[in-house]
Amino acid sequence: MKHTLAMVGFGGMAGWHYDLIEEFEDLTVAGVWDIKEEQRELARSKEIHVYGSLKELLADPAVELVLVATPNDAHKEIAIRAMEAGKHVISEKPVTLSSKDLREMMDAAERTGMFFTVHQNRRWDGDFLTVKKVIESGSLGEIYRVESRVHGSRGIPGDWRQEKERGGGMVLDWGVHLLDQIMLFFPDVKLQTVYATLTHVTNHLVDDGFTADLGFANGVHILVEVGTSNFINLPRWYVLGSNGSAVITNWGQDMQVVRAVGKTEEDVVPVRTAAGLTKTMAPRRDDSICTEEVMVEGGNVKEFYQNVMAVLEKREESIIKLSQVMRVMKVMEAIFESDATRQVINLED
């Protein structure tokens, strides 16, 4: 079955979508609409049909599916208009700016009977898939802490991402990715507490970074951190369990794992420091640990569109659940509230 999609917004992410869709035989792009003439000209230069208006795009009977790839503040209105016009909708992340807005979008999907989903593409990142697999394997013992970070040193891009009213800032830009990944580690475990601080090192209008501690009912604490003024990066992932630790230093690198192998350590050689001896912090003997390298999993982001088409053909359920999207949205709201109040936020849901 052939499916036809139209794009609202033709910036960087829409271009990425277009290139990906070109690899499918059963999915095609009917055309695009963008409010900026330079983006419309870019589409024409690629020999992509450009609609005369959003209204014209939504009136095209050939269009089955609409991708909303505009700045964040415009997602809700366009998505609801598209669903009311009888189109299925994919929204770029973050789906919108608040849980209230998301509820309106979900209500529109239920009211119209249209399929509505969100492009959470980093569920297919190999580093995330590898960490998830290791956690689920139990090889590190009982997990008690996970740290997930992305660090850069170039500040926020000089576009609408610097504007609060447009949905700018790193919580909504990168936090939505990291939180979506994190919440999949323990999908059935209640998130009880959130404590967060935002940074404004390079931008005083929106957050240019944040650190959030998430406390789950199973006792696990997960640290999520985004920084845009970090000239020395901390590891992308750091996982601590009762029987071992794992680290992924950066994208494109394999995981390093160190596990205990059951040997007793009766004759610990103390570490001598300037202030005295310590056995507690002395390194383990080589015969009491196992050190290994775990190759990063290979993720296939094409599975997103494969799943979307399977949903439209009623062969599969959506991989991206709107309940999951809502959960992440409420965590982001808790992060903003915690920073504003300087308090731990206790979540009810």
Jot down its keywords:
single chain; 349 residues
Describe this structure in words.
The chain is of the alpha/beta class and 349 residues long. It is 30% helix and 26% strand. The chain contains 9 helices and 16 strands. The chain is elongated, with a radius of gyration of 23 Å. The chain starts with a strand and ends with a strand. The mean pLDDT is 94.
SSE layout:
Blueprint: E1 3-8, H1 12-21, E2 27-33, H2 37-45, H3 54-59, E3 65-68, H4 75-84, E4 88-92, H5 99-112, E5 116-119, H6 126-137, E6 143-151, H7 170-182, E7 191-199, E8 209-216, E9 221-227, E10 237-241, E11 244-248, E12 255-260, E13 271-273, E14 276-278, E15 289-294, H8 302-312, H9 322-341, E16 345-346
Parallel strand pairs: 1-2, 1-3, 3-4, 4-5, 6-9
Antiparallel strand pairs: 6-10, 7-8, 7-16, 8-9, 10-11, 11-12, 12-15, 13-14
Helix pairs in contact: 4-5, 5-9, 7-9
Lateral arrangement of strands in the main beta sheet: 15-12-11-10-6-9-8-7-16
Quick one: how many beta strands? 16
Overall SS class: alpha/beta
Global outline: elongated
Task: Average the pLDDT over all residues and give the rounded result.
Answer: 94
The oligomeric status of these chains comes to single chain
Task: Give the helix level as a range of percent.
Answer: 25-40%
N-C termini distance: 40 Å
Give the H and E element order: EHEHHEHEHEHEHEEEEEEEEEHHE
Biggest beta sheet attributes:
9 strands, mixed
Query: Poorly predicted ranges (pLDDT <50, ≥5 residues)?
Result: none
Strand content: 25-35%
Number of helices: 9
Radius of gyration: 23 Å
